Request: fold
Amino acid sequence: MDILEHGLQKMGYTLGDRQREQFEVYSREILDWNRKLNLTTITDYEKMQVVHFLDSLTLAQAAKPGTLENGCRLIDVGTGAGLPGIPLKIVFPSLKVTLLEATAKKTEFLKYLVSVLKLDEIEVVTARAEDQARLGKYREAFDIVTARAVTQLAALAELTLPFCIIGGRCILPKKGDTAREIEEAGKAVETLGGTIAAIQNIDLEGLDDNRHLVVLEKTAPTPDKYPRRSGMPEKRPIK
Ligand code: SAM
Reply:
């Protein structure tokens, strides 16, 4: 875990023994389950530390100061193998995390992982965001909403902003040239009660693929009609 620890130090964090062990177990389990599930194309132990773990932890740079350390509620939409939700939970143990994932085989892995990593205050939900965001317990209930590698920003706004409390943030990692994607999402973000507050560049050693965080602030309630039914946000993004 040297690469991870070195990168984390640069961000101002250090790992304790338990956290180091948790990341080691997490890597092993991803590689093990990857033989039957399509969890990731990154199967190199060292690469995983940067491309999955450090990349997930860069989200901390866009969170409101003190929120991650003080038990705020975070939902990770389309979490797949638990990214970025699990690395964040390991480094910030007081976080209350919901891992939301539509594919039951992946949530089976996540439930197993939560038990072997002995994580508490973390729930794994098998559902689509469009359905889950309509439930009272989940709607406008999270201080931080994230979703990595799920879909284009206009659709992503509809899958994330409904979960966010007013005054909270959606922190959405992206890579490559997304200028057009961001421009095209403007109407959707505004319609759903948000503003594009910042685009924060991310510098990760060895990666030159223009990683950045798109930060949406929730400034007004999301109208009741959103999110639309399952599949619609991607099929017909708000324009
Ligand atoms: N976030 C993980 C990562 O960065 O490695 C997984 C990314 S994977 C490419 C996208 C995941 O989002 C898939 O596991 C998929 O099942 C899930 N997903 C896509 N649309 C979803 C939705 N509307 N609600 C819940 N999960 C969704």
Observations:
- The chain has nine helices and seven strands.
- The CA atoms of residues 154 and 186 lie 8 Å apart.
- The pocket of S-adenosylmethionine is lined by residues 77-81, 83, 100-103, 106, 128-130, 148-150, 159 (CB under 6 Å).
- The mean pLDDT is 96.
